[in-house]
Specification:
It is a single chain. By secondary structure, this protein is an all-alpha fold. Helices cover 83% and strands 0% of the residues. It has one domain.
Length: 283
């Protein structure tokens, strides 16, 4: 894996952990999801327009259909994640989602995209996934079965959109910025009929969680844009598990902002993760 791809994934992971902390604080809901989608579109349309003028990237009907499918999957992703955060802790739901997702994505990339990761990549993937479950506690907590279920469901959707988007930008040549913006626009359009009848709740969500909406609306697409760019430089089976360094960042953010403990377990999980990421870099 190249140094540029590694840097893109690590920067993305830090942004991802940050916006998940903001989403946890906000509590979520379809109104929150629509607002952050609208913020994304408004913020990134000028950037995309400038990119089109300067680079004139090719964009086909196939790219558009794949982006629409990605929009549907990302609605499912945000919905499952938000419901998980409503009933469970960030330190439980986030690692389960991020840990199960890359494992499934790697398997799907091998089966569906014909990727053949080497021994180092497979070993690194195994260590990263193991570290995720060490950081999350390694076993179910009483009363947290719903949170665990939503975490695993989120991981399943992560695997689906990772493989789909990896195919779009890595195999059929979709420009990451345009692809991402079209997917986010599709998400906002699909959700609009739902929030149209809840405009009072939309205004209240904006009033009480404006900073979280803006933060997630800006950081979420930027983090994923970096991942899509990395997928142009490295295979899904390597990029997907390496993204899980975000768990380490989430552990630090959780300890500082949510007063979460278990420092010894977190330290052990961090060491295992660093070793796994080192193997992925060498793969």
């Amino acid at each position: 894996m190249t140094a540029l791809a590694t840097a893109l994934v690590i920067a993305s992971a830090l942004m991802h952990a940050t916006w998940n902390l903001l989403a946890k604080r906000a509590g979520g809901g379809v109104e929150f999801l629509w607002l952050l989608s609208a913020v994304t579109v408004i913020a990134y349309v000028p950037v995309a327009a400038a990119y089109v003028v300067v680079a004139a990237p090719e964009f086909t009907l196939q790219h558009g259909l794949l982006a629409l499918a990605s929009a549907v999957l990302h609605i499912a992703y945000f919905t499952a994640l938000q419901r998980g955060y409503r009933v469970g802790d960030l330190s439980l739901v986030y690692p389960l989602a991020r840990g199960s997702g890359p494992l499934l994505a790697t398997l799907a990339a091998i089966v569906l995209l014909g990727e053949r990761p080497g021994a180092l990549a497979l070993g690194g993937t195994a260590l990263v996934v193991t570290s995720v479950f060490v950081l999350s506690g390694g076993r179910s907590r009483s009363g947290q079965s719903a949170a665990i279920g939503y975490g695993l469901l989120t991981g399943l959707v992560i695997a689906a959109y990772t493989v789909l988007d990896g195919y779009a930008v890595g195999h059929v040549g979709a420009a990451p910025l345009l692809y991402l913006l079209l997917a986010d626009s599709g998400r906002a359009a699909l959700l609009f009929p739902i929030v149209l009848g809840r405009w009072g709740t939309v205004r209240e969500t904006w009033r009480t969680h404006r900073l979280e909406v803006i933060g997630v609306g800006l950081l979420s697409p930027l983090a994923y844009l970096l991942v899509l760019s990395a997928l142009q430089l490295a295979p899904v089976s390597v990029v997907a598990p390496m993204r899980e360094v975000s768990i380490l960042f989430a552990a630090v953010l959780g300890a500082r902002t949510l007063a979460e403990g278990n420092a010894l377990r977190r330290g052990l999980g961090a060491v295992v993760m660093v070793v796994g990421i080192a193997l992925l870099v060498l793969a």
